[in-house]
Amino acid sequence: MTESEEIIKVIQDLDPDVIMLQEVDIFCKRSGNRDHMQELCRALKLKGGFVCEFQELDSPLRGLRDAGGGVHGNAILSKHDIEFRMLEHRKEAYDWNKHGKWLREPRIGKRYTLVGTVYAPSLPPVLCYCVHLEVFTGIINRVHNFADIFEDASSNAEKYPHQVICGDLNTLAHSIARFSPKYARDRYRLMSVGDTESNWFDRHVMAVYRDQQYEYNLRLAGSGFPFSAMPVRLVRFIWQMIGPKIFEIISGFDVETLKRARNPGFYDPWDPNEVTLRNPNYFGLFSAKLDWTMVRCMDVRQKWIGNRDFSASDHAYLMLKVSPDDSEKVAQVPAIWKLRRQQWQPNGFAPYRRTAIGTTLLTLVLTLLSQWLIHMYKQFML
Q: Where is the Endonuclease/exonuclease/phosphatase domain (predicted)?
């Protein structure tokens, strides 16, 4: 059984209503020169939409595993009627058109998010975002791009309160990946020490609600080390006194991203450190939660994780059974969101490890500095 046939078999056994897939190939040599989108829709008898992110150029630079010749993108499949559109991001996390050859993957295109509105009988419409964030960048650019999704979701929340964000966010800039010039390309390879990227993302982005009283994500603004331990109230005070520029410089996030990167009510029912990818290279030392299933105004009744042996794909799959909230709960989004985050946060202390490490290191530096100053003062007095 080929990998694509195994994936179809897994989906048939699960029988989901809606499927969100990333890295779907159409006529690429590496995947048998087949139209996998058409094969999926026919075999599963589902309606589907596909957004092409890249034309994979056929080139001698590519190895057999990455052989191109076709196109590559993301897809949403549904049993029910569905309307599609494409979300374009403000910034390119990596310029593939110019620099793809440096990674031995020459291609034309850029990252997009596929958006689908599902209309199931007897249920409210559900707005679905199928996401694949860039892997060859760093935390800053991934948050830049993800913030665009939160902004779009918020702008559509009144019309479509029931929403889902699913996909591969490539939250992997931790562990030994910190030492990689390919996978950790910004200051957060050091400034997030003590956290996995998924934990850092949960703490600085997912945990900050889009309160109309506060226009910016101040936790993200103060995320630069050693400001990881800085209370939000202190960040707000300094912001009001001298403006946002110092925080843009320290954090690496521009004001527009700090405004957009506020959660309009999504929660992810998985442990922020759940493993959905385990790389067999590097002596099996690297693992990460790359994949996310975020829901808004819906109650998660059951959840599954499968393909733990990574035989059908290099990622585990995540599946949810959800029930849409009634109008009474929709009117109480902030309170319901807070309760559900608490319900599905199995390790409440994990997000604070970095604060503890940052505070400890800062205390150590200040102690050593004070001792050095005392020593120099004594030498001067002699």
A: 5-202
